[in-house]
């Protein structure tokens, strides 16, 4: 009974808190011209000349982003750095960095890049720069995860393949290595070459410059970010990369790119993918697995004590923290940290206070989905992994990512870790929030980006040089709900070939209407808003499209005819919805009430038509229920899910889960620039929770497992 009362009390308190936090706060959305002058550079001065009045926040944000990218001196130009005594990092030799830790009698190499050639160059340059390392043998190689840019260069550190170094990795790493080299390896390789621009690197002398100035500029931004020298001051010359309006300008642009083609070719988190032939890769599988069966190791005749502790995550395999020193005088903490991969580990050297976050932190927006083809990365677990880094004690003084530059100083590192986890958490939580409100991926992409706090949008470690907000939103949606958007129009979308066929047939039927371009705006993951506006502009009248849809529906001979009518009518209906993202020019083409009513009628009948073709009960029911909802303008769940049902769920769900549900229900777009914390101590249940809000991001600390709880622990015990 006491537990029941506590849970009921928690539900009431959380409801009141959510109501208070959802109140709108006033935000100043304008900045005077003098503020802009503080950002003085060529780009900003041009803005000032063209605008004599106030600028909104979006304009200021874009200017700050460009200034950040242009003036950023951190880069991945080839270099070797001594981070602190006994810790070295090689940057710019390949996509990934390689870290070398000096122990009493040996070296520990952490990640070996994607290439034997690049690993060999790192080894040669490092030993040349630091001669004392030449006397020490590489006894251990650590893989932070399975990605090829961290594992395929190991042979460069091996002198005798009959007696190779001990290779240390998570238990899942071997399985993941085998996976990427088997079933889908062929197409993944092809798409990876596209993603990393490998062929662009090879064709650098013959590549034509971009025809669009903003693309040239953006390429320059990225290249400046990674340190390819674009000029004497290492900044990109926007004037030289402007639009090519005449032949002389085109020649100047071509000269810029041919002199340094890397201006627009890089991998986003490093300079380029190193691949010097089919024999430039090696595979040394892990020989020392980090799992809970290890208690004592006998390495080189010396007993090493290793201990572990379990942490709960969504994955079934064990999550461990292992501490060992290999008998070499340096303590290594191996923490399992699912994030960019499920086998990811981060490494902490407590005596040196050096944190190696692997690929869970780098100076670019996290790649929650890789367009080369990968499972969606677990965003919630990624956040938890970074929280584990934030909870380290003593707190790190050196952060050495395996892509991009190190970060120095406790305050700077804390800011990077907190902002990075907030960026992932915000995109995840707000995506799920809009999912539960019934939005489809195309809408959610816009809504999440519009509501993202300025603190995160402008943070140097969250610029979209690698991952993007849009791809992350779509990947998170797919991870939870699969490929189907929830809109019945996407159940059986027409193929591109079918769309082309219907397009040209429509063009023949309606003379003077440019339907030939419809093909380019319809796809499986279409953006109906853009399609609707452009389609209507092309034909000058929604009635033309409505007549085409009506004709396809009335004379249907197969399911595809009904689908074509559904796609056309559904696209037009987007013009009848509130569209604050439309420009005034677009709103001129808004539909009349009569046209909206006709489009709605066609859509309902198209859904019923598609249902008649369905053998699957699931599909037939979905089409007919969707038609019912449109006809009666209400969702089906309103008749079957009552407040009493929701109250029942609140009683049967564990208290911890109730708190975990709060972040995905937080109205971030209504509460910006707001920071606060609330603590909940349930004395009868001996449970403590802390709710922290930072600019639209909600962090829930459960039972003293995160940093902010530890700081408050004594106060509430």
Automatic annotation (TrEMBL):
Tell me yes or no: is Membrane among this UniProt entry's keywords: yes
Q: Which terms are listed as keywords in the entry?
A: Membrane, Signal, Transmembrane, Transmembrane helix
Give residue ranges for domain Metallo-beta-lactamase.
95-403
Q: Name one GO molecular function term.
A: protein dimerization activity
Q: Which InterPro entries match?
A: Alkyl/aryl-sulf_dimr_sf, Alkyl_sulf_dimr, Bact_Alkyl/Aryl-Sulfatase, Bds1/SdsA1_MBL-fold, Metallo-B-lactamas, RibonucZ/Hydroxyglut_hydro, SCP2_sterol-bd_dom_sf
Q: Give GO terms for biological process.
A: dodecyl sulfate metabolic process
Matching Gene3D superfamilies, A to Z?
Answer: Alkyl sulfatase, dimerisation domain, Metallo-beta-lactamase domain, SCP2 sterol-binding domain
Q: Which residues form the signal peptide?
A: 1-23
Q: Which CDD domains match?
A: arylsulfatase_Sdsa1-like_MBL-fold
Top-rank lineage group of the source organism: Eukaryota
Q: Which residues cross the membrane?
A: 514-531
Recorded protein name is Metallo-beta-lactamase domain-containing protein
